[in-house]
Amino acid sequence: MPHTFEQIIADKGYVLADGAMGTGLMALGMKRGDVAERWNIDHPDRIASVHDGFIDAGADLILTNSFGGTEIILERHKLGDQANAYNEAAAKLACQSADRAGRPVLVCGSMGPTGQLIKPLGKLTIEEAEEAFTAQAAALATGGVDYLWVETMSSVDEMTAAMKGAAKTGIPFVATMSFDAKGRTMMGTTPEAAFNAAQAVDPKPVAFGANCGANPRQMIDVILEFKKVVTEDDLIVAKGNCGKPQLGEDGFSYDGTPDVMADYACLVRDIGAHIIGGCCGTSADHLRAIGEALASRPKGPVPDMDQVTEMLGEA
Questions:
Q1: According to the 3-state scheme, what is the secondary structure of the chain?
Q2: Cα 228 from chain centroid?
Q3: Residues 38-97: pLDDT tens digits?
Q4: What is the tens place of the pLDDT at every residue in 143-178?
């Protein structure tokens, strides 16, 4: 691998992750119900433009447009037989954008949840989930990703299946779970339990953390919980949503401003996050504000709750 998280952190103290691919594609015409991964073949120029926008804003890593790329999800749209092609194309497009950057930009293969519950709560078996993730990871690896990125998980079982699938490629991987306003995943997992579950997998992820969630303020609480259980060698990921979601005719929009996201980013860095970016609603403009704030504001002590509330509001 030509570059690593550790090298970037050694150079600048943190890794600036990208923003929301879905938000970028909606601005380019994607409608609710469209299959984003299909655009890797049908509209590669639009995918590339979102990647390029994040890179221009300063991103050190970009996630491939493959969040819903398992055969399980794609088969709902009668596109399961295209899973390998969509994932490989996603990786190649991201790698091409990274190659044009003129500086090191890491490409991470996004692997989101299947959207199904695993037995006994649902019909999907752990073996079926792992098989689907293994196939997706292999296609992303063929496309040339530097890391695999298991994200937005709410079930420990599904996260574990995805990590095992990723591990079979031999490529290092990251994992993140999504926590709600009560500090738990949809399946009731706490940050501490999530971290411990990830560490129990062999090999374990090279970085672990949280993405999505209720809002930037809520992400602060989650990262504080991670801080209680991680060691100095553990890399923490914070990739929070851009404000609160609001559902309109064209889908969800988010009320977070660039200034809010900049404050959130500096707060999670001060707590101990190493890989920092945005999730739903985060545009290139938001990401640029995050990068500029991280670069210009010196790292401070772990903030107290009064400071957090003053900057981001109540939890």
A1: CCCCHHHHHHHHCCEECCCCHHHHHHHCCCCCCCCHHHHHHHCHHHHHHHHHHHHHCCCCEEECCCCCCCHHHHHHHCCHHHHHHHHHHHHHHHHHHHHCCCCCCEEEEEECCCCCCECCCCCECHHHHHHHHHHHHHHHHHHCCCEEEEEEECCHHHHHHHHHHHHCCCCCEEEEECCCCCCCCCCCCCHHHHHHHHHCCCCCCCEEEEEECCCHHHHHHHHHHHHHHCCCCCCEEEEECCCCEEEECCEEEECCCHHHHHHHHHHHHHHCCCEEEECCCCCHHHHHHHHHHHHHCCCCCCCCHHHHHHHHCCC
A2: 22
A3: 999 999 999 999 999 999 999 999 999 999 999 999 999 999 999 999 999 999 999 999
A4: 999 999 999 999 999 999 999 999 999 999 999 999
- For helices 258-271 and 216-229, the axis angle rounded to 10 degrees is 10
How far apart are alpha carbons 284 and 146 in whole angstroms? Answer: 22
Q: Are strands 245-248 and 251-254 parallel, antiparallel or unpaired?
A: antiparallel
CA distance 247 to 64: 25
* Dist CA 40 CA 48 (whole Å): 9
CB atoms inside a 10 Å sphere around CB 306: 8
Residue 149, beta-bridge partner list:
110, 174
pTM for this entry = 0.95
Torsions phi, psi for 82 (to 5 deg): -100, 5
Q: From the centroid of its chain, how far is CA 144?
A: 18
Spatial separation of the C-alpha atoms in residues 6 and 10, rounded to whole Å? 6
CB 156 within 8 A of CB 189: yes
